[in-house]
């Protein structure tokens, strides 16, 4: 009888230990054991082609500073696809951590963080907005409010498969600033998963500026060629 109680206590104690020490100790991409901090092993991190330089997204004499963590290939492409299509939020957290480090390194200052909105139809289909998830994780970590400034007013065609100019035309007048929200004099960080021509991010940043924002900085997980 005593033995049973001991076994029971032992079981409960193991449960307690499991709760205390249960961390995800496998690489988010390849699954191999990790011995230390982070979400990714060195082999997988080496498959990310980091993109160190800031660049400008420019149209008709207006331009915005943009930072991308890496090129849209290898490890980063896998992370983005896992977040976007497999609801893998650990992949999302991995990406957001790179973004947070970049904000700190570049000393990017902002009052609030926002994201590229999805149409209601797309949101219903996916269930979440991956860019909003990244923006929220960044805001939480850096103590900045996440504000949904923008809405998508036109259900545009998917940008995939369109040429550079077609992309610019496709997103024209697709986004607007939500009426009641005051953006006046705000310095805003605009987050997206992948930037290609920059047409979408530009369109959103431009709308925010037209409604009185002071400054917009664009930050994306990856940068892709058309
Ligand atoms: Zn790995």
Radius of gyration from CA coordinates: 21 Å
Assign an overall shape.
elongated
CATH class of the largest domain: Alpha Beta
Strand content: 15-25%
Count up the helices.
8
Main-sheet strand order equals 1-2-7-6-3
Helix content: 40-55%
CATH fold annotation of the largest domain: Rossmann fold
Termini Cα gap: 71 Å
Order of helices and strands: HHEEHHEHHEHEEHE
- Taken together, the total number of domains comes to 2
Q: Major sheet, described briefly? A: 5 strands, mixed
Number of E-type strands? 7
Give a written overview of the molecule.
With 226 residues, the chain is α/β, with parallel strands linked by helices. The protein folds into two domains: 1-46, no CATH class; 49-223, Rossmann fold (3-Layer(aba) Sandwich). It is built from eight helices and seven strands. The strands form two sheets. It has a five-stranded mixed β-sheet with strand order 1-2-7-6-3. A two-stranded antiparallel ribbon has the order 4-5. α8 links the parallel β6 and β7. α3 (74-85) crosses α4 and α4 packs across α6 (130-142). The longest helix has 20 residues, at 2-21. The radius of gyration is 21 Å and the shape is elongated. The N and C termini lie far apart (71 Å). The relative contact order is 0.15. Bound molecules: zinc ion. Zinc ion binds next to α2.
What is the structure about, briefly put?
The protein has 226 residues and is α/β, with parallel strands linked by helices. The chain is 42% helix and 19% strand.
List the helices and strands and how they pair.
Layout: H1 2-21, H2 42-45, E1 55-59, E2 62-71, H3 74-85, H4 89-106, E3 112-115, H5 120-126, H6 130-142, E4 150-152, H7 164-171, E5 175-177, E6 187-195, H8 199-210, E7 215-223
Parallel strand pairs: 2-7, 3-6, 6-7
Antiparallel strand pairs: 1-2, 4-5
Helix pairs in contact: 3-4, 4-6
């Amino acid at each position: 009888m005593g033995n049973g109680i001991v076994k029971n206590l032992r079981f409960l104690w193991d449960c307690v230990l499991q709760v205390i020490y249960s961390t995800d100790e496998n690489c988010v991409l390849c699954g191999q054991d990790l011995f230390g901090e982070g979400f990714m092993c060195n082999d997988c991190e080496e498959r990310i082609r980091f993109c160190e330089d800031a660049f400008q997204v420019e149209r008709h004499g207006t331009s915005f500073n943009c930072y991308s963590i890496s090129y849209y290939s290898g490890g980063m492409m896998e992370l983005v696809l896992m977040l976007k299509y497999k609801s893998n939020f650990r992949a999302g957290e991995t990406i957001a951590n790179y973004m947070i480090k970049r904000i700190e390194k570049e000393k990017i200052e902002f009052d609030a963080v926002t994201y590229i909105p999805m149409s209601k139809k797309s949101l219903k289909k996916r269930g979440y907005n991956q860019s909003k998830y990244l923006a929220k994780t960044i805001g939480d970590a850096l103590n900045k409010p996440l504000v949904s400034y923008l809405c998508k007013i036109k259900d545009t065609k998917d940008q995939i498969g369109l040429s550079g100019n077609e992309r610019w035309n496709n997103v024209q007048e697709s986004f607007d600033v939500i009426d009641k929200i005051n953006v006046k004099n705000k310095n805003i960080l605009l987050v997206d998963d992948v930037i290609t021509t920059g047409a979408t991010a530009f369109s959103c940043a431009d709308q925010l500026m037209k409604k009185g924002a002071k400054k917009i900085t664009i930050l994306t997980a990856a940068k892709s060629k058309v």
